[in-house]
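Hey L., structure's done. Input below.
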Amino acid sequence: MSHHHAPEALTLYRRLGLSRRRLFAATTGLAAAATLAQPAEAAEAAEAASRRALIPRGKRGIILYTVRDAVGRDPLSTTLPSGFRRVLEELGRIGYRQVEFAGYRQHANAEGGANLETVEGARLLRAWLDDNGLRAQGNHGFIPGSWPLTTADLDRFKQTLEIANILGLAHVGTGADPTGSAYKADWDVAADKWNELGSIARRAGVRLYTHNHDAAYAFLLDSGPLDEQGRPTRSSGIRKLEYFFGISDPRRVYFEMDIFWAHVARFKHHTYTAPDGSVRTDVFDPLATVRAREHRFPLFHAKDGTANPATANGYDMVPFGTGDIDYRRFFSRLRERERHNPMYEQDNAPGTDPAQSLRYAELSYRNMAALRG
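Output:
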C-alpha cells in the first residue's frame, strides 16, 4: 500500500497529533461506519451481487423442444416469432447463449423450408446461431436402433455427425434411454452399441450422450428366480443407469441428466425386491449420482417442478425457478460449473396462449440468471 497521503490528510493528522498508522485506522473506521449506515436493502443488494452466479452467463441454455410450437408454426399466420430464424433471434434477445436442438424441422413456410437436416440447412442454422450470439451444444436426434449396425443406419449416423460439425455441436444424442428394458442382458447389448457409436462420434470430434428419464433410475432385474422366459425377477439393488455407467466407456459415452425426471425417480423408485425376496429401501440421490462422475455429465435439463404427491410422478412441470426443486443446492455443490451446460426445458410450456412458451422462456432465463450461491 502507498504511504503517500493527500496534503489535506497530512494537515489533518498533524493538527490532531495522529501518526500515519493511527490516521489510517481512523479513516478506515469512518469508511466502515459509512458502509454500515447504508440502507439495509442496499447492503443486501451488494451482498447478493457478490455471490457467484450458479449458472454462468455463457452457460444459460434452452432446448428448443420447450418452444417447439413457435418453431413449428406458420409465420404467415401470426406476428409472433415463428420458425428457427425468428425464434433464435428472440432467444438471443432474451439473453440465452446456448441452445439444444430437438431435431431440425420447422413449418414449411419458415425461411429455409420444412427440413433443415441437410448440409445446406445446417449452414443456414449455423449462420442464424452466429448472428444471435448462440452456440448449439447438442441435438436430440438419430441414434440407430439396430445392433449390429446396418449400413443404412451407419450412413445416417455419419450424416448426423457431419451436420453436427457444421453447426459446431460439441455433443450429439437422443431424448431416450439407451434401452427401455429392465433386464441386465439388454443393458449389456445397449452398452456394446453405445460404445461403438461413441467411438464413431469421437473420431468426428463430437461426444455422444443419452438423455434419461425416471425409468432409467429404476432397479435392474439381475438376480433371483427366473420367470417362464428365463429372465431374472429380482434385483441386486443396482439401478439400471448405474449399471450402464460401469459398462459404458467413459471416454465415449456421456449423459444428460434431466434433473426433473431424476427427482421423479427419487419419488417413484425407492424400493426393490432383493434376491432373498425381502423388500429393501434405497432412496435415489440425483446430486450424488452426478458428483460421483461429473465429467460424464456435460449437459443437464434444468426442468423445474412443483411437488404434487397425488400424481404418479410426484411433480408438476413449471417454469424454471418457480418450483420446489432445489436448484440452488444442486448447482452450488457441483465442483466444476464451467464443465456443465444446463438447458432449460419445460415439456408443457406450449399452451392455448401462442405466446406462452416464449414468455416462459424469458421468465426462466431471468430465474437462471438470478440463481446465486
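The chain has two domains: 7-47, 56-370. Residues 1-37 have pLDDT under 50 and may be disordered.

-- N.
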